[in-house]
Amino acid sequence: METDFPLRKIIHVDMDAFYASVEQLDHPELKGLPIAVGGGEKRGVVAAASYEARKFGVRSAMNGNLAKKKCPQLIFVKPRFVRYKEISLKIRAIFYEYTDLVEPLSLDEAYLDVTVNKKGNPSATLVAGEIRRRIHQELGLTASAGISINKFIAKVASDYNKPNGQKTVNPEEVHSFLENLDIRKFYGVGKVTAEKMYLLGIFTGKDLKEKTMEFLEDNFGKSGSFYYQVVRGIHKSPVRPNRIQKSVAAEHTFDENLSSEIFMLERLEHIAQEVGKRLKKSGLAGKTITLKIKYSDFTLQTRSRTLPYFVADPFVILDTIKELLYQEKMENSVRLLGISLSNLNTGDKKVDVPEEAVSIQLRFEF
């Protein structure tokens, strides 16, 4: 693959059904059973589903009641995020033995730039395999990985041989890989966008590649130029360690709908305390306070206010939330409330990939 930009060796590691797998690891009696980590059948939302549950069509973000209908034998398990974070940190410790260029996306996935790595291994494929083996041997969990020249292709590839597999897309294979890819497999193309692409005759990467930049921008706005670039294997975003946090938030889904602002304020006080704890732990403060409201009919509303100063105190946050709550009359009873702080005091410093990590030959061993 000839390019006018440097190629990198990028690995995207994605843990397999992470939350559910941790529960099955800690509770052997759950192994082999369909489980859903989430709030429960009555009101909760599935945060993660084991592969045994996925066979029945149970997916993350699915309503618990619907999940139970799809899989009557489904077992609900309450999430333990402290435990998930504990294991996530151990996984990252393994990553850092190979490279300092690690960009976590969440507790269960991350990008690694191993163009120049601490092991001196020229093969990103072998590095990915070694990392996956160590995760399994040391932590008892499985991970999948995608390996390629940039973050976009690596992320798409990591889903190719799930679970517990990996896929390498070598430089000379990039174009054919993307052209033959179902458009639904393109990272960043959701259900709505995919349906719109179908109507425009775009079903594969090859179909997408045949469209001009002007056509894609006319139909998809700013995303059009992104689609135009990535289908040609162009995605210049480097792996960025120390990703800048953009917001701190907490929310709660209630067992019964709330129709009284007094009851809502009681819940919001607890949520504000949780946000305050998270801000303190991260050493952050923010200026923009947002109240999130999800009504019983699942419609979502947000109300925000930006202050002239940074705040982190939960009582100060709650004062603003009270104003936002009474800003206008509720449209319906409420099933979820959330509070977030954005416009944080994180500054704008970013850590870029060092020059020596990207100044390499165009054709090299993967």
TrEMBL record:
Site (Substrate discrimination): 19
Keywords carried by this UniProt record: Cytoplasm, DNA damage, DNA repair, DNA replication, DNA-binding, DNA-directed DNA polymerase, Magnesium, Metal-binding, Mutator protein, Nucleotidyltransferase, Transferase
Catalytic activity, as annotated: DNA(n) + a 2'-deoxyribonucleoside 5'-triphosphate = DNA(n+1) + diphosphate
Gene: dinB
Name by which UniProt lists this protein: DNA polymerase IV
Domain DNA polymerase Y-family little finger: 246-347
Any single Pfam family the record assigns to this protein: IMS_HHH
Organism: Cerina litoralis
SUPFAM superfamilies: DNA/RNA polymerases, Lesion bypass DNA polymerase (Y-family), little finger domain
Keyword match Ligase: no
Main location: cytoplasm
